[in-house]
Amino acid sequence: MDQPEASCSSVEPRAAAARELLLAALEDLSQEQLKRFRHKLRDAQLDGRSIPWGRLERADAVDLAEQLIHFYAPEPALEVARKTLKRADVRDVAARLKEQYKKKYREHVLRQHAKVKERNARSVKINKRFTKLLIAPEGAALEGEALGPAEEPEPERALRSDTHTFNRLFGRDEEGQRPLTVVLQGPAGIGKTMAAKKILYDWAAGKLYHGQVDFAFFMPCGELLERPGACSLADLMRDQCPDRGAPVRQMLGLLPNARLLVTTRAAAPGRLQGSLCSPQCAEVRGFSDKDKKKYFYKFFQDEWRAERAYRFVKENETLFALCFVPFVCWIVCTVLRQQLELGQDLSRTSKTTTSVYLLYTVSVLSAGPAAAGPGVQGELRKLCRLAREGVLGHRAQFSEKDLERLQLRGSKVQARFLIKRELPGVLQPEVVYQFIDHSFQGFFAALSYLLEDEAPGAPGGGEAAEDSEEEGAERGFPLELLYCLYEAQEAAFARRALRALPELALEGLRLSRMDLAVLSYCVRCCPAGQALRLVSCALPAPQKKKKKSIMKRLQSSLSGSPSSPATRKPKASSLHPLCEAMTDQQCGLTSLTLSRCKLPDSVCHDLSEALRKAPTLTELCLLHNGLSEGGLRVLSEGLAWPGCRVQTLRLQQPGLQDSLQYLAQALQHSPALTTLDLSGCQLSGPMVTYLCAALQYPGCHLQILSLTSVELSQQSLEELQAVRTGKPGLVITHSALDNHSEPPKGLSTSL
What we know:
Blueprint: H1 3-26, H2 31-42, H3 53-56, H4 61-72, H5 74-87, H6 91-112, E1 115-117, E2 123-125, H7 126-129, E3 134-137, E4 159-160, H8 163-168, E5 181-185, H9 192-204, H10 221-226, H11 233-239, H12 248-253, E6 260-264, H13 269-272, E7 280-284, H14 289-300, H15 303-315, H16 317-322, H17 326-341, H18 353-366, H19 374-392, E8 398-399, H20 400-405, H21 412-417, E9 418-423, E10 430-435, H22 438-451, H23 461-475, H24 477-488, H25 491-498, E11 503-507, H26 513-525, E12 530-535, H27 550-559, H28 576-582, E13 589-595, H29 601-613, E14 619-623, H30 629-639, E15 648-652, H31 661-667, E16 675-677, H32 685-695, E17 704-706, H33 714-726, E18 731-733
Parallel strand pairs: 5-6, 5-7, 11-12, 12-13, 13-14, 14-15, 15-16, 16-17, 17-18
Antiparallel strand pairs: 1-2, 3-4, 3-7, 8-10, 9-10
């Protein structure tokens, strides 16, 4: 009995909105144009039906609008009117009718998204708070052919997210094709959602995709998953429109050419590939150093406080590095603002995101009359339990019943760490709660195991844990483990944990600077006998220093200050922290393998410096890394250094040819090198002659030389045979040499 009333109540707002748009269009028509419109409308059929001529013959603009809505329903009426206007040769009005709703919708989006809620539920204007992010297009494939130095492409440079960068996301590729799907990927808190909201806001303001996109919608997947019951795309679109009279049918007709922007965490794109058609990927890399400072000034809105807070963070190298993540930057600024307001000293430091989150939690709970009391401590335990239940059950949203069950409704921790949201329901909106960030939920879930007295776990925890393990395996379990060890900041514990992993193997990953910082910490703590293998891993591009102005360069030139390349200090590479960690006296790394990682000269320079001081490194494998002549030269200098302890070198790099002379020179002076594997390399006749001379040098201690799969001339084979005869202790392996002695166990002949 009540259903028709509900239906009528839902149709009426749609009819009113459609009536307003139709009247605005029809009242602009002249009498002659209105007459043509009535005649054309008589033949406008929809599902085989059209308005009878008797209702149209004497109808004015108001009557026509009513007839259209009554006969066709609100949304189809707009489309019928637009097509009829075009057939009546009133195309300008037809276009205006189409544009009127587009304009109305854009104005609605501007109002809806002018402000964004921060993690503590404060609303701020998006233009006042949004700070440009670094966005890098998808790089070249990590696997495949090994490029030579001349063929190696320049690393893609991350661009700051201005209007031009956002427009380029859907730009044409080298073949002139424009992608319809773009995936923005990056870790939690890096700014993906804020970037998507800023793109939507700038579109509505007419700054982006002008004339290319008619309607744009923001659909948070987390809310969609929690939405009760089935829901059509038309319903989702209508929910975001200013009224129920939206031309949804027209919007759905645009879907074949629609553009889709997806945000996902860096580890999840693999699961999306089967659902997306040829997506173009881009990586959100957080703030540049320049934009970190801008964020501080936007946050504090007080120059004195902003400068004081920024200087404090800038002096703390570790904390400043962590602030490339916008969410971490927000936490740091929030804590520092509280300390400045209370007149406290900004002396507390943090080295990890865990310590930053802990500092934020303590600061928030320490404020107010009931600070740190037993009541607040009990609430914190319950909050941690809620977080753990969510993680194990793959839930990010919680009902009011969940909060009542744990007695968290109205608590201090609810107000500080949970965000209240309203989702569309069947009869009325459904209230749900979620943590201020997914990473905070994980933090509190981990904290629960320290705070809870009872045995950890939850109903169904075994199954959920199994799923989590599968997800962790997809993301690269070793790297996830290293992050845990880094967050703990306990060197002795890290060393004990790494004993269970004698080889750390990372394969096919796009390593960020934070990944390398974590890896470097663990290498510094690794036990004796540890091996590290990086295969097909993309290294971050080196940070470019700001160029000096022309005046400063002229002054340097006139003052005679050294600026020639010969006297300039080489720029540190992205692997510099790792190479530096290898030289730590507590580092037990004995084997390092870099395969298909495309090492520029700057990496070779840092690696060469590490070879001179690494206390335990005895094996180095460099396989298909696109080494240049200069890179091999500086590496050879490190191998020849008196303090170098490398005993085994495996080098596979086609195309170097005569550049191997630098390695041959190193053989003459290397104090420890006893095994050299050049399998798969290209050796010219003169190069073999040079190598044979080096092998006979008194300072050469080489005992094993592997030349498997190396093409050699007859003369080169004879020269090598002569060297072997002259040095009985030297084992040379090659299929064409009459060598019946088996190579020692452990020598790889096919890497």
